[in-house]
Amino acid sequence: MSKQIVHTEEAPAAIGPYSQAVKAAGFLFVSGQIALDVAGSGDIKAETQKVMENIGAILKAAGLDYTNIVKSSIFVKDLNNFVAINEVYGSFFTSEPPARETVEVARLPKDVNVEISVIAVQ
């Protein structure tokens, strides 16, 4: 199996030993994205918006877009933000949204409030 590392300057660089995304077997696996520049602002909608924009930049670098996403995972520090996150997240999918889970977690990297990873297909 061959794989290709996908990287763009339009999204935050990895903060550990991982790649922004990896293409393999017709799939693109996008690592969890966070919103470093708005983290700590307390604005969950702004944070979610930036996370989704980061994902979009990585998709674009791989020659894909949001319509190629088949699965997403949302990790949130406070599930009370579920409705606000959904509002922003949902605006990126005009039809046929991907499969998804949303999980409340105790803590996220850099103390952000939301992290989203996706799997896309070519």
Automatic annotation (TrEMBL):
<comment type="similarity">
    <text>Belongs to the RutC family.</text>
</comment>
<dbReference type="GO" id="GO:0005829">
    <property type="term" value="C:cytosol"/>
</dbReference>
<protein>
    <submittedName>
        <fullName>Reactive intermediate/imine deaminase</fullName>
    </submittedName>
</protein>
<dbReference type="GO" id="GO:0019239">
    <property type="term" value="F:deaminase activity"/>
</dbReference>
<dbReference type="InterPro" id="IPR006056">
    <property type="entry name" value="RidA"/>
</dbReference>
<dbReference type="Pfam" id="PF01042">
    <property type="entry name" value="Ribonuc_L-PSP"/>
</dbReference>
<dbReference type="InterPro" id="IPR006175">
    <property type="entry name" value="YjgF/YER057c/UK114"/>
</dbReference>
<dbReference type="InterPro" id="IPR035959">
    <property type="entry name" value="RutC-like_sf"/>
</dbReference>
